[in-house]
């Protein structure tokens, strides 16, 4: 079978292999960090591996499209070659959708793990459920776009097909909507944290990486408009195919970057570690009804948030130790330490107990003074 290699097709492959390789390297660093440094692999880590696998499958199908005329004018492509190209194209659409949907689910599972507030968990499960139903629809509609299926790659076959233009634009619009929701989901929680401004802005910047996915989704929508109105689809499909590959892999990159901080802190401590920034602390005395918390006496709960010298490479970067108000909901006799992105949270409890009961010396039991001393706090 004749194959056609065009400069436009080679350009699309070059861009795709660059972004797929970068996504693979960053995802590998994420898994290395989570599995061996942090030692806390989660559901979001396994799901991102599924997304990466489908991204590579999409790249393989794109290679098939290029080697069968993508980027060449329709009039210059033999009928048999065009049919093979369309077969590869038909297979690539649901693969692209599966990779992108699974990446979004990985991000939401990461949110659910990091932000332990009930409101955030419910919101994440709600959007995960929506993505599950929407993902099933978009994958099935992509595979069964035509009845019979062969009509997709062979227009001479009797049957009917769904309106591709309406399907593509509706799917793209929903992707842009879900990208926007994923971008804004963590912002209210991050803004409410009682942290120094630099640490807060750094956290917001990390979770705002999803904005790049939103940008690529919008740019891909523009390329879909071109091919939807094209009379030369094999020539104009290069833009849509390229942006689809970029979108899948940029999503994987943005989902994986927050999980690589511990590795980068070990590799380049002078750049990514915050140890040299010194301590910045704030101590809060917890009270109830305007009075210090007490329990059988006088109990002082001191919560100290210290930034700058936490060894971030030894900890999982969670926000679970902090509530949105920056306070703690419980206290303990032992100091509790948590670290998130170089921020160490320490809770110390000092408890003093006094007794006003009458002291009676009992020769058989020994000195009451010794008894009090023995059981004092």
From TrEMBL:
<keyword id="KW-0472">Membrane</keyword>
<dbReference type="Pfam" id="PF20684">
    <property type="entry name" value="Fung_rhodopsin"/>
</dbReference>
<dbReference type="InterPro" id="IPR049326">
    <property type="entry name" value="Rhodopsin_dom_fungi"/>
</dbReference>
<keyword id="KW-1133">Transmembrane helix</keyword>
<protein>
    <submittedName>
        <fullName>Genomic scaffold, ProqFM164S04</fullName>
    </submittedName>
</protein>
<feature type="transmembrane region" description="Helical">
    <location>
        <begin position="12"/>
        <end position="33"/>
    </location>
</feature>
<feature type="transmembrane region" description="Helical">
    <location>
        <begin position="45"/>
        <end position="67"/>
    </location>
</feature>
<feature type="domain" description="Rhodopsin">
    <location>
        <begin position="29"/>
        <end position="265"/>
    </location>
</feature>
<dbReference type="InterPro" id="IPR052337">
    <property type="entry name" value="SAT4-like"/>
</dbReference>
<feature type="transmembrane region" description="Helical">
    <location>
        <begin position="87"/>
        <end position="111"/>
    </location>
</feature>
<dbReference type="GO" id="GO:0016020">
    <property type="term" value="C:membrane"/>
</dbReference>
<comment type="similarity">
    <text>Belongs to the SAT4 family.</text>
</comment>
<feature type="transmembrane region" description="Helical">
    <location>
        <begin position="201"/>
        <end position="221"/>
    </location>
</feature>
<feature type="transmembrane region" description="Helical">
    <location>
        <begin position="166"/>
        <end position="189"/>
    </location>
</feature>
<feature type="transmembrane region" description="Helical">
    <location>
        <begin position="123"/>
        <end position="144"/>
    </location>
</feature>
<keyword id="KW-0812">Transmembrane</keyword>
């Amino acid at each position: 079978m004749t194959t056609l290699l065009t400069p436009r097709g080679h350009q699309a492959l070059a861009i795709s292999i660059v972004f797929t390789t970068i996504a693979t390297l960053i995802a590998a660093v994420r898994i290395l960090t989570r599995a061996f440094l942090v030692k806390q692999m989660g559901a979001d880590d396994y799901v991102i591996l599924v997304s990466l696998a489908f991204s590579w499958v999409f790249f393989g199908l794109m290679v098939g499209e290029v080697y069968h005329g993508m980027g060449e004018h329709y009039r210059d492509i033999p009928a048999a070659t065009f049919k093979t190209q369309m077969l590869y194209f038909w297979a690539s659409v649901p693969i692209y959708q599966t990779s992108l949907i699974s990446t979004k689910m990985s991000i939401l599972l990461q949110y659910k793990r990091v932000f332990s507030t009930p409101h955030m968990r419910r919101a994440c499960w709600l959007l995960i459920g929506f993505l599950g139903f929407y993902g099933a629809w978009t994958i099935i509609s992509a595979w069964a776009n035509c009845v019979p299926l062969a009509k997709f790659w062979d227009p001479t076959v009797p049957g009917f097909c769904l309106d591709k233009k309406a399907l593509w634009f509706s799917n793209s619009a929903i992707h842009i909507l879900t990208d926007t929701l994923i971008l804004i989901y963590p912002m209210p929680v991050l803004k409410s944290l009682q942290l120094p401004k630099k640490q807060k802005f750094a956290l917001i910047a990390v979770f705002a990486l999803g904005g790049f996915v939103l940008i690529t989704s919008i740019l891909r929508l523009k390329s879909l408009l071109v091919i939807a109105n094209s009379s030369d689809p094999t020539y104009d499909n290069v833009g849509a195919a390229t942006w689809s590959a970029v979108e899948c892999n940029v999503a994987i990159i943005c989902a994986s970057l927050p999980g690589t901080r511990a590795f980068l802190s070990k590799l380049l401590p002078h750049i990514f570690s915050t140890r040299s920034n010194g301590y910045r602390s704030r101590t809060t005395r917890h009270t109830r009804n305007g009075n210090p918390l007490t329990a059988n006496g006088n109990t002082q709960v001191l919560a100290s948030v210290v930034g700058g010298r936490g060894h971030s490479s030894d900890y999982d970067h969670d926000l679970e130790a902090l509530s949105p108000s920056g306070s703690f909901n419980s206290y303990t006799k032992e100091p509790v330490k948590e670290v998130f992105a170089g921020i160490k949270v320490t809770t110390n409890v000092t408890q003093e107990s006094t007794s006003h009961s009458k002291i009676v010396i009992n020769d058989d039991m020994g000195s009451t003074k010794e008894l009090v001393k023995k059981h004092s706090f």
